[in-house]
Amino acid sequence: MVCEKIVKVNETLASEVASVINEANCMYYRFIIPGIHFKYPIVEVEEIANYMKSMEFFACIVREEIVGVIALKSSGKEGVVRFLYVKPGFQRKGIGSEPLRFLEDYAKGKGLRKLSLVVHSRASWAIRLYRSHGFVTIGFRDKGAWLDYIMMKIL
């Protein structure tokens, strides 16, 4: 299964975007983030609507349903990949790769030269995905109860 289309989304779809993020986060991170630190929902609809004012959000659409999301926060010649989530039941079908490839091409078109991101060090599926797209680990962020990897890709 692949994205039928990838579209830019705005505040009018904040609820659907937040739903994908919260469902995927709950399904895949609740087992690797220590219970006292795990939060559900991870984002509220209002937070996503606010983020949409400072980031560009894109959605992967399958059968008129948002099944994947990704966001880009850019400044100067650099961009930060945020909120790459795929709805449970749609993972491991290429849906994570498509928005990431799309975002890389989009960032190049905007003149960005580098993308970075932060990923939980125990999210092995996400790390594999990012590495398969050419991202490399350039550092770590100690969150106390776990480590995050800081990854980067030159475009």
Task: Please explain how this structure is put together.
- The chain is α+β, with helices and mostly antiparallel strands and 155 residues long.
- The protein has helices spanning 14-29, 45-51, 97-109, 124-132, and strands at 5-9, 56-62, 65-75, 78-86, 114-120, 136-142, 147-154.
- It contains four helices and seven strands, in the order E-H-H-E-E-E-H-E-H-E-E.
- Strands 1-2-3-4-5-7-6 form a seven-stranded mixed sheet, with helices on both faces.
- Strand 4 (78-86), helix 3 and strand 5 (114-120) form a beta-alpha-beta unit.
- Helix 1 crosses helix 2.
- It is globular, with a radius of gyration of 15 Å.
Give descriptors for this structure.
Aminopeptidase, alpha+beta, 155 residues
Q: Could you write a compact summary of the structure shown?
A:
29% of the residues lie in helices and 35% in strands. The protein has 155 residues and is of the alpha+beta class.
Detail the topology: elements first, then pairings.
Elements: E1 5-9, H1 14-29, H2 45-51, E2 56-62, E3 65-75, E4 78-86, H3 97-109, E5 114-120, H4 124-132, E6 136-142, E7 147-154
Parallel strand pairs: 4-5
Antiparallel strand pairs: 1-2, 2-3, 3-4, 5-7, 6-7
Helix pairs in contact: 1-2
